[in-house]
Amino acid sequence: MELDSIECVPPLDLTDEDGIHRHLHHFPSVSKPHTTTTTTNNNTNTVASAFHTTSVHELLECPVCTNSMHPPIHQCHNGHTLCSTCKTRVHNRCPTCRQELGDIRCLALEKVAESLELPCKYMSLGCPEIFPYYSKLKHENLCNFRPYNCPYAGSECAIVGDIPFLVTHLRDDHKVDMHSGCTFNHRYVKSNPREVENATWMLTVFHCFGQYFCLHFEAFQLGMAPVYMAFLRFMGDETEARNYSYSLEVGGNGRKLIWEGMPRSVRDSHRKVRDSHDGLIIQRNMALFFSGGDRKELKLRVTGRIWKEQQNLEGGACIPNLCS
Q: Could you tell me which residue ranges the SIAH-type domain spans (predicted)?
């Protein structure tokens, strides 16, 4: 479902462009041994430790999916190992020697894994943390440095990356409108507003306070009732999103609806935000009333602003910092 006309008033341009940085993971290099006996021994131990950790880490890599293995780690009668997920995928046959796997666990390798401490796999993206082997996976699922999914809601886009990369991707690949500033004024026009088929539009990306925000406007069925919904998502983590607030306003014929809230992080999927009804929801009959005329054409004007909450150090209250 597409809009017949989209108008943004006034037109603004996003002037700053961030580069796309690709990071490669490198193991720290080992310095050349010095001539003294003590230093040479220390460096030898360092090299041995580095090789030991690397080789053990390779042993803990599943030969099928190449992911790190966690208990239960299975092995065949010849000692070849693989993870529990892949055991079912290979129909209980060892992918290395094709022998039947049975139910043999490699307890020795599981014990060795307990003694390891490894850096987060997002170290190259800035995460400095080191974790015990079995805690590492849990951290990585929630790591603040993990890549973001593309927030475009109009298709199932599989692109992931950091925020500067995704902003460029949205602009160049999805042709999303980019605007600079913390206020917006949009006019939505649809010639046949009775066609509501769970269609989605991600209309604009806004740049203000040095951050990026995604404004969504869409039509979908809420139960048996067709509705329109507008909401804002913050391109960053939830902890940062809490520093901002936004308002949306729609109206006409002497009536108006106002929504105020905190933008949701793009860590939350578009569907999760939509299904939680966390935004400005307009019933179709109300939308047509706001549109005026013969109620056969949708003409909605949605205005809004974004502001940053600042802590009042004396009183402890939050005061808004409005964007000029």
A: 115-175
CA distances for 104 relative to 6, 70, 179, 247, 252, angstroms: 62, 15, 59, 59, 71
245 falls in which pLDDT band (50, 70, 90)? very high
User: pTM of the full predicted structure?
Assistant: 0.68
CA atoms within 13 Å, Cβ hemisphere of 179: 22
Q: What is the 3-state secondary structure (H, E, C) of 219-261?
A: EEEECCEEEEEEEEEECCCHHHHCCEEEEEEEEECCEEEEEEE
Residue-wise pLDDT for 134-179, tens only, equals: 888 889 888 989 999 999 876 678 999 999 999 999 999 999 999 9
Q: Is 74 helix (H, G, I), strand (E, B) or coil?
A: strand
Per the CB < 8 A criterion, the answer to whether 245 and 236 are in contact is no
Question: Which runs of E-coded beta strand occur in 53-139?
Answer: 74-75, 81-82, 117-119, 130-132
Number of other CB atoms surrounding residue 253 within 10 Å: 9
Bridge-based pairing of strands 74-75 and 5-8 is: unpaired
240's tokens: 């940062």
Rounded CA separation 84/44 (Å): 37
Q: Minimal CA–CA distance to 121: which of 66, 49, 84?
A: 66
pLDDT, tens digit, 9 for 90 and up, residues 47-85: 334 334 557 778 888 999 988 888 899 999 999 999 988
Cβ-Cβ contacts under 8 Å for 303 (sequence gap 6 or more): 183, 184, 185, 186, 248, 249, 250
